[in-house]
Amino acid sequence: MIEALRALDARQPLDIAIFNAGVGGMAPRHVAVEQAERALEVATVNFSSTIAGATAIAERMVGRRAGHIVLIGSVAEAFPLPMAPAYAGSKAGLRMFAEALELRIAPHDVKVTLVSPGFIDTAMSRGVEGPKPFMLTADTAAAAILRAVGRRSSRLTLPRRFAAVRIVAGLLPRALTRAVLRRL
Prior knowledge:
The chain is of the alpha/beta class. Helices cover 54% and strands 12% of the residues. The chain has a 4-stranded parallel beta sheet with strand order 1-2-3-4, sandwiched between helices. The chain is globular, with a radius of gyration of 17 Å. The model has no long low-confidence stretch (mean pLDDT 91).
């Protein structure tokens, strides 16, 4: 993948690169922990492959002193989800990577935007059992991402109500948040 991205960029320099890799899923309630093989797949797709690709493109964009990298994360980055620890951990890692990469390459006129969506009406979200609060259509999410990229925003949480939920959850005692999440 790294070599393919470099070759693509060598043929036609990329102005923008959007990394929207993601696999999800939840461990069934009757299973104590996720399967190790599944956790590895989630970590590889959601985190390792994404940061390797973004780093390869960042290197080329820095050389040109131009470009924009968009990383699609998840609001799960902010919560220790007991039903999906590998997913939540991979998206939390991606959030930290996006922030660190932006600090590193901003002096070279390359922008990084982290998009943290909640539920978007896609096959992945439709496969999640249970409530899907604030679900957005794919077209609505795409339009919001396009606006954020146009503004060169560092961060976008979709829908905005999830940004408020994350702020409120961050103000609560961690023990209370953990107690609520244990019940899910």
